[in-house]
Amino acid sequence: MNRKQLLELIENGESSKIEFKEMGIHPVSLAEEIVAFANFEGGKILIGISDAGEITGCNFKQTEEFVVNVCRNNISPSIIPNIEKIKLDEFEILSLSISKEDTVYSTSKGKYFIRVGSTKQIPTQQELLRLFQKRSMIQLDEMPVLKASIQNINMKLVDQYLERLGLTPLNIETAMALNSDYRNLSILSTIDNRYPSLAGYLLFCSYPQRTFPSFGIVAGAYSGSNFLSDTIRESDINGTLPEMIEDAIAFLKLTIPKSSIIKNGIVREDNYLYPIAALREAIVNAVAHRDYSISGSSIRLFVFDDRVEIRSPGGLCNTLTIESLLYRQFARNQNIVSFLSGMGYMERRGKGILKMQKISEEFHVKCNIEITPDKSEFVVVFSK
Q: Which helix (H) or strand (E) segment is 44 a member of?
């Protein structure tokens, strides 16, 4: 960078790509700025410039050594800095260039930052989820839930899961032993095992909607074929994923149409017009495969007089298409799928869609699968 380029940067002021710092900045503060740039699109930190754009200068040797130490000791994983020294009249300016990387950085104390305009910000849970997903570093459901702790994990639910698998209960002799069991089960995050993973939180922590209000099911039943019809029943279904599955099935049993026959001229037998087993499969798939990086959108379950709709946030992942969905297997949330498989809700072979359609065919019910035009929802429609 030459003198003219440096003066131009200073004149334009701080931005999403440029940050000014004076000599004497605290190492923790500098580490946070570097992390924010590395988690964004990269940028430059000019040391020797005040926030107001006044040239104050720095000591090349002292500042360079300080920056290198911060990059190695205060950032995880450590960064190899690109440092440039620029002489401006009697002042020395150090330019620290941070490039966009394929990993996600935090400070050595486990704090994440992103660049928003000309400031560093702590990302929201959803922003952090998307950042890890974008960098293809980790499965979404392995992310730490930063607003929770190990104390939020319901040990009784975990022991019930272990019992179903035929495994020994949790080791509660020491906190270290209990943490080890949680880590081995992927209930704690592999990124930062001080926190539950998203999968662990959604399956084994009481009322996950306290932290993620939209990670529930919005259910409604209507007397006609659209939302303008009279409402029969509405419900917000919350709780752990297994609790939501069971409550959604209970809602369907209360609201879907039935046909009645009199057997032997005495006993009335009610039969559901839609196969409960197929509906259950669709609910499980929605809970297991929804895109949990999308905040503000819930799974939606609608019962109309001519159809049942189950709408799950997010389109198909990777290179899946509606046509290939029947023959290919890919789980967006692999840990959630693993837990639900262990609990008996789904098979690992990825045959849920085929099973759903086969059962529907036997009941003479149509089972259509589609993606909304804006690819924001995966929709399953059952109709007579």
A: strand 43-47
